[in-house]
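Inputs:
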Amino acid sequence: MPKVFRSTIIDAPVETVWGILRDFNGHDRWHPAVEESHIEGVRAGDQVGAVRNFKLASGGQLREQLLKLSDRDRSLTYCILDAPIPLIGYVATISLKRVTDSERTFWEWRSTFDAPPGLEAALERLVVEDVYEAGFAALSHLLSKPGQTASAVNEAPRVTVRPIARTVARPIRCHAVMIDSYGSHDVLRWREVEVPSPTAGEVRLRQAAVGVNFIDINVRAGRYPQFAPPLTPGVEAVGEVLDVGEEVLGILPGDRVGYVCLPPGAYAQYRNVSADRLVKIPQDISDQTAAAVLLKGMTAEYLLRRAHRVRRGDALLVHSAAGATGMLVCQWAKHLGATVIGTVGSEEKARVARDNGCDHPVLYTREDFAARVKEVTGGKGVSVVYDGVGRDTLLRSFEALSMRGHLVSFGQSSGAPEPLDIGMLTAKSAKISRPAVFHYIADPAELRASAAAVFEQVRRGVLRPTVRLRALSDAAEAHRELESRSTTGATVLMCG
Amino acid sequence: MVKVYTSSVIDAPADRVWGHIRDFNGLPNWVPAVADSRIEGGVPADKVGCIRNFNLKDGGNLREQLLALSDYDYSVTYNILVSPMGVQNYVATLKLTPVTDGERTFAEWTAEFDCEQGREQELADDIGNGVFQAAFDNLKRQLGSQQ
C-alpha cells in the first residue's frame, strides 16, 4: 500500500495558509491541476461530508469527500470517491503547523492508497509531483511577499502563477452613482470618486455587475434616515478582488466574489467592503447572473425554507409574482412542490408569471386575490402569504390565510402598512412575521450556505432569472423604469 | 497547566538533525545553557527510563527522565524530576518532521507544566525562548546554512 508524505514551508503566517486550504472547494483558485470545482448539493465547503466535484486541467473529472476538518489542529482529511485513475481507497490528510520563530507555515500532505500491481510507482509519482509538489509551489508563489528571495524551492513552479501584491497601496480614482439629497430618480448623479486602500478586515473590489433592488429606491427616497446623503446607493454587487486589507483570511486578489451588505455603496466601479460579507462566485455562473440572483435568490431561500418552511403540497400566495424576487419565489416554490398563487399587475405579467412556476396568476387590478385564493384552495386559504407590497395588500393577505397560516410581511413596496391590531390574528390562530433578509445572512456560515443553495438551484435550472442590463451610469433610468412597475425580472447595472 | 510550543526550520535533512540530538545525554553538544551531563547508573542513553543529570553554565542542576524515544517518528519525550525553575509535572516532547521540499527539518519542542500562580508568563518565556529557541538557533548555526 503506497504511503506518500510530502511537506514544505510556506512564507506566510499559518492563519493565512489555513484560511485558503480550509476551503475544501477553493482549490481551483490556486492548484494548477484543477480547472473548476463545485460542491455537490447544498453544502458549504467546510461542512464535513461535503463532496467536491472538479475538473482537471488535463480533462478528467474527480469527486472527493471531506471526512474531517479541524480548525484547532489546522488539518483536514478527505478521500477520493470517483477518479479516472486507479487510486483505490485513497485517503489524504493536509495539516499545518506554525513556525513560531518566523511567521511561516509548515505544511504536510500525506496519503495512503492501493494501486493495481505494477502501477504503484507511477501513481505515487503522479500524486507526489502533479498534486502535492505542484500545489506547494503554486500556493507558495501566490503568497510570496514581493521583494523577498524565493523560499528554498530550487525548480520553478510548473505553472506560472503571478505573484500578486497584497495591497495596491494607493487610492483609486473612478466613478460612482451618488445622491446629494433624497428625492426621485433624477437625484442620482454620476460622480468621480476616490476609493482608498482597504482597511483591516476589508477587501477592495473592482466591480463588474451591480444588482438593483427595491431597497435602493427606498434609500434614495429617504425612507432610511440612518443613511444620510451624500451617499452611494446599492447593497449588492459582484466583482473581482483587487487587494485585501490586513487580517483578511482566505481571500486572494483575483477572486470572483459577490456581496450583499449595508450600509449602501454598491453603485460604484470600485468599492471597499467587509470581507465577512463576501461569497465566492462559482466559475459556471456569470457576473450578470450572480448580481441578478444573489440578494433576491437568498431572499427566496430564507422565505421558503427558514422564515417559513414550504413543503410539497402546500398552497402559497406571493405578491408581485412577475417581479424579480417574486419570480424566483415562484420558480423555487414550484420546484418544492407547492401550489403557487401569485398577484400581478397586467396580462403580460400574468403570462410571465405562469411561465415561471406560478400556477394561478391573479390580476389584482381586476380581481380580489383573496377571493381567488379561496376558490383555488377550496375555501381553506393558503398556509403562507409572502407579502412584499405592504400597505396596499396586507389586510387582504391576511384574509387569504388558512387557519394557523403564516403571513410573512417581508417588504413594503407600496409603503408601510397601517398598524395592526394583534387581536385580529386570533380568528385564525394566525402567525405574522416581519423579517429582514440581512438578519438571515448576518452569520457568515448562514450567508455562505444560503448563497450556496442559490447557486445550486441556478445550476440545476430551478432558478432562471430574467436579467435586464444597463450601464451603471444609467442608474437613474433603471430606477425610473423600476418605479413605473413596467418591468419584469431583475435589473443589473454593468460597470463596463 | 502552562503550554509552551516553539518551532523552527533547520536547513539540514531530518535524519542528520536527529543524529545530532538523539543522544539523551548529548545536551552539552547543542544546548548553549548546558555545561555537562551524565546518565545516572551508567545505563545507555537510549534506554527508556534512564535519567540524565546535568548542570547549567549558570550553576543550576537538573534531573530528567526519558519517557519515550522514537527513531521512527524522530521524537523524544522526557519529564523533569528535579530543577531550580519551580515547575511541577513538567513533560516535554521534541519532535522532528522532514520538510521534503528542500532537505530541511521542521523541529517542534513542546512543554506542559504547572507552576506558582503569577509566574506562568515568565516561565513560558524562559523555557520557550531562553531554552528551546536558543537551542534551535544554535542547531541552525551548527547544522544549517542560513535561516
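Chain B has one domain: 2-143. Flag for discussion at group meeting.
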